[in-house]
Design goal:
Layout (H helix, E strand, L loop, with lengths): L1 H5 L2 E6 L5 E11 L2 E7 L10 E2 L6 E4 L3 E4 L9 E3 L13 H10 L1 E7 L5 E9 L3 E6 L1
Antiparallel strand pairs: 1-2, 2-3, 4-5, 5-6, 6-7, 8-9, 9-10
């Protein structure tokens, strides 16, 4: 945090597949709120997964979510990768994100507390990124 207060900070991480990504983070004050501005294009070309349902921008992968590339312009659309974790599901991957962005809906399987598998419907939600509905 201390380095963010000094200006843009270069960060890197490795994905679960071992791919190294480099990005920069900068704190900016917008109105009366501090926001972290992330430049995911710093040092690498990002794969576009689809169009943002809110503003039409490109949706790209970030470390924790699939986000609109127009974040700097104020679009806060994001599909969080851990959306199914609290229900016993796996992390959402690129393929599920593509299906959501293309069709507005997809399905996934989660394990119940008793070990049984259940199908859930995942649909796009402009306010929350995605909505999980149980059958």
């Amino acid at each position: 945090m201390r380095s963010l207060l000094k200006g843009p900070t270069k960060m890197d991480f490795k994905t679960s597949g071992g791919v190294e990504r480099i990005f920069t983070v900068e704190l900016k004050k917008v109105e009366d709120r501090w926001r972290a501005w992330v430049d995911f294009e710093a040092g690498s070309e990002l794969e576009v997964l689809g169009s943002c349902p809110v503003c039409g921008g490109d949706v790209v992968e970030s470390p924790l979510s699939f986000v609109c590339s127009r974040w700097d312009d104020g679009c806060e659309f994001a599909i969080f990768k851990n959306s199914l974790k609290r229900f016993g599901g796996k992390m959402l991957g690129k393929q599920k994100a593509r299906e959501l962005l293309e069709n507005g809906v997809t399905e996934a399987e989660i394990k119940g507390f008793d070990g049984s598998c259940r199908r859930v419907k995942i649909s796009l939600d402009n306010e929350f990124g995605c909505r999980v509905e149980f059958e």
